[in-house]
Every structure is written in C-alpha cells, then in structure tokens.
Amino acid sequence: MQLTEDLRRNYTTILKEELVAAMGCTEPIAIAYAAAKAYRELGEMPEHIRITCSGNIIKNVKGVTVPNSGGQKGIETAAVLGMVGGNADKILEVIADATEEDRIKTRELVKAGICDVALAENVPNLYIKAEMWNKEHRSSVTIEEHHTDITQIEKDGQTVYVAVKGVETADEGPEGDRTRMTLAGIIEYANTVDISEVEETLERQVRCNIAISQEGLDNPWGARVGKTILENWSDDVKSYACARAAAGSDARMSGCPLPVIINSGSGNQGITVTLPVVTYAERMHLSKEKMYRCLLVSNLVSIYIKHYIGSLSAFCGAVSAACGAGAAITYMSGGSYEEIGGTITNTLGNVGGIVCDGAKPSCAAKIASSVHAALLAHYMSVNRKGFRGGEGFVESDVEKTIKNMGYIGKIGMKETDKEILNVMISKVDVDSKLQ
C-alpha cells in the first residue's frame, strides 16, 4: 500500500505521543504527578491527602517499589513523595530530583497517616483523583484514561481547568488517531518514512532502555530473572534477547531510578519492544537506520494491538509488546507481510492468555516468557509454520485476530480483572469459594 501524507503524519504523531520518558512504574508515577499538581494548586502544606483511584491503579501500585523513595512502596508513598519532592513540570519523571530529606519526610508523613486511599467505582480503568486540604483551602487533580491526561483541576470548590475532548490546545497539538492504524500501514511507514523525523525519539529509546537493562544485568535487582537466564540458558541471541528485556524490568520493578522510554503507557512494554530488536540488530550487524526502521515496526505493532485493549486490563501488556518485537525481528529478516502477520498470530495464539496481576518483580518473568514465545512465533512463521484460522480465536486474517484478542482483553477479561483485584486485596475468601 502507499501511505498518504496525512497517514504518514498520523503514525509519526502516535510515536511521539507514546515514546516518552518515565521514571519507574508508570502507575505510582502518575499518582505522584497528580499529587504534585494538586500540591502546586493548593500552594501550602495540606493537613490531609486522599487518593481515589481505579482498581487497576491499586493493582499496579500495590507490589512495586516507588523509584527514588529509598525502597518504599504503595500509593501513599507515591502521593506523599510527589507532594514533598516532586516537580510537576517533569511529568512522568516528577520525582527524579527527590532528595534524602524528601524521602525521610515521606516516611514520616506516611507513618503519621497524612494520606488515605479509596477505591473508585464505575470509572475508567485508569483513574486517579488526588485531593488535598487544610483548614483554609482544598484542591484536587483528576487523571483519566492515560497516565498524564489531567481532565479536571479544582481549587476551593471552583473548577480551574477541565479538559474538552476533541479540542486541541496550542501546546498539545493534534492527537494521533490509533483507529487508522493497520499492519500494512505500519510496514509501509517503516519502509518509507524519512528517518530523520523519528531518529531522535528512537535513539533516546535505545539509549535509555539499554541503560536500565544493563543495570538489571549488572546488579541484584528484583528476582534477577535476566541474570538467571544468562547463567542457565544457552549463550545465543535468543537467550540474550529474553535476558536483556527481563533485566530491564528486574531493575524497574524494584525501584531503579533510571528513566525508561515507554510504549502504550508502560515502561515494561517500552523495554520489551526495544531490547530484543536491538539485540538481534546487533547480532545481524544492521545499520542504525535499519535498526530504527525495525523499531518502528516493533513500537507501532505494540501500540496497535494494545489500543484495542486499553491502558490497563487483566491482559498482560508484555504480550502485545512481545508481538511487536517478534514482528520487527521477522521484518528485519526480510519477512513478507504474511510472515510478519504470522509472527503476531503465532504469539497471540500461544501466550495471549497471560493475566496481569499488577506491577511487581514477576513482570520480568512474564516479559521473558512473552519474548520467548514471540521468537518461537518468528521462527515458525519464516519456516511456513503457524496457527490457522478457526483454531480458537485465531483468524486467517491477522487484523481480525488482533481485534479478537482486543475484545477478549477489554470485554472478556473485565470480570477476571475484578476478581484478580479481589484476591490481591483479600476481599474474597478463596478457600470457601473453591469448596
């Protein structure tokens, strides 16, 4: 297919919207960002903070270390550190400059009970409302749908900002339309775009994500999944691709303060679309330009699959990201549209059912499993092997398979998502339910 100039710009816009820097797991960082904005609006120290958020936010913050916090965890920590040590202008790097004094103050305020947490019902899967008040004043900031999308700011009961959907601001510019994405369009864009338009964005992704991966391989972060793979699997490109991706998550989930360039709102997904592609590109001695074109496929395929599912769900985002990485490796190997589509189909047909039970060290293992499945899918596809239409949710058309997976992840797994949260917060008596 031949892309119109409008479609080409749309893909470029989507990339630049998605590939932004974030420090640590994006859910606690989004809470810290909301709290920093609310504190700025209040203008003085509050007597109390309340964070009201969706179940998916609770799920993704419960087990992960807040970066730059000195090993502290939890929603309360993220909110208080965002208030005392945050710079809202840095958005998803809001707590990058937090000091030891800020960390000590955070511990003191959390222990004193300055912050409480409430579950929001009947809201988007990604929802955060940060409220602060003292005797004189009150402020609140609401984030919905995406980690940096502030939809409302209030001060002393008055709305000072409300987002209007479909209206561009001078600062934000046009928003990319994910509904216009197709696999054929992604491949054509990767083949033909002037690489100078996206080179800076991709170079930053490679630089940042390699750095946190190497940190995970060099030091004892998390469950050490990446290090375990290198110590026990064969010394080949497949093992190294899995290990490097897992190691980045090892570090990130355990509070490493290094920034990650995210994909689909997730640092783990950003790591997963990057490291396997870079590893294969290095082994194949590709030029930088060719590697960047492969990364375009990886990033955009991941975004394309994930946009049907939504920002947060019971569907593990490592799978959609691994689909992107596998598709890119097939692309760099000279694979056709059919072979690239086959890699995606084979991956989804294998590990499409991995569930998300929140952000935590085991995410690194899910990344390794997903990347391994994507590499298997790649080798199957280029050797004319694969899963066929009519087998489970797999269709003969890869676009339909992607939509089927999107429906399952967004609609079919909605109740699963609720029950995962119930188990995590001990809201259900599992023993009695299983009798």
Span between N and C termini?
Answer: 57 Å
Could you state the order of secondary-structure elements as H and E? Answer: HEHEHHHEEEEEHHHHEHHHHHHHH
- Uncertain stretches of 5 or more adjacent residues: 166-173
Q: Widest sheet: strand order? A: 3-2-4-5-6-7
Cα-based radius of gyration, to the nearest Å = 21 Å
Supply the number of helical segments. 17
Shape, per Cα inertia axes: globular
- Total domain count: 2
Work out the strand percent.
5-15%
Helix content: 40-55%
SS class: alpha+beta
Please summarize the sheet with the most strands. Answer: 6 strands, mixed
Rounded mean pLDDT is 93
Number of strands: 8
Which key terms come to mind for this protein?
60s Ribosomal Protein L30, Chain: A; 435 residues; single chain; 2 domains; 54% helix; 8 strands; globular; alpha+beta; six-stranded mixed sheet
